Amino acid sequence: MKTPKGTIAKRVILGLFALVILVGGYNVAKQVRNNIRENAIEKADKQRIIDAQKADAKRRHEFAETIAKPAMQVWKKEHVVLPSIVIAQAIQESNWGQSKLYQKAYNIFGVKGTYKGQSIIYYTDEYVSKDTKVAKGVKVVMEGDKKKISVPATFRKYPSVYAAVENHSTVVALNFIKKKNVTSYEEQATMLQKNGYATDPNYAKSLIALIKQYDLAKYDK
């Protein structure tokens, strides 16, 4: 018995329709899977960022605590540099303890010279004019129109963080904060800049901003 042509045509159309639904469903399912995978990757990336931020915050807190203990001990003994100022300077000078000078010599503040006969040679970067002659062995890097040279210098090597903080207090008392018992960190920061501790015109503002941001004044109490 022959199947009517209209029936065949309907079956073909239904078959094509079913195929379209099948293919469309596959594409939808594939897109859903891709979206799930992308969301999972994005979530994992966000979690890695969060974990890295937590680890960095923990490292910074631990560094601040490492400097705070001897800073408070030296303040109680000498009453020269407030702990908040010491910690803020340590953060700024050593980049939260990441500097090679700190890691190799406990030289938190970049003090040159020797300490009880102990020192370390470390290269410091300086910018000079393009026609400046440099000695043999000096590293030279061109940064556009600027000429940066790395000059070896002798820095103090300390046996401990406490020794570095204590020596820092002595240096500051002799040259920058010549009054004892100054209990305002704003005043001490201003005195450091005014008396030439750093050439940065925003040095005092930077120290004060760090103290406020990380609540370092709590160590003064």
UniProtKB/TrEMBL annotation:
Q: Which residues form the signal peptide?
A: none
Query: What family is reported?
Result: Belongs to the glycosyl hydrolase 73 family.
Put simply, this protein is called Mannosyl-glycoprotein endo-beta-N-acetylglucosamidase-like domain-containing protein
Q: Which InterPro entries match?
A: Glycosyl_Hydrolase_73 (IPR051056), MGlyc_endo_b_GlcNAc-like_dom (IPR002901)
Question: From what organism does this protein derive?
Answer: Apilactobacillus apinorum
Highest lineage ranks of the organism? Answer: Bacteria, Bacillati, Bacillota, Bacilli, Lactobacillales
Top-level taxonomic group? Bacteria
Ranges that cross the membrane:
12-29
Classification via PANTHER family: PEPTIDOGLYCAN HYDROLASE FLGJ
Classification via Pfam families: Glucosaminidase
Give residue ranges for domain Mannosyl-glycoprotein endo-beta-N-acetylglucosamidase-like.
51-220
- Presence of the UniProt keyword Zinc in the record: no
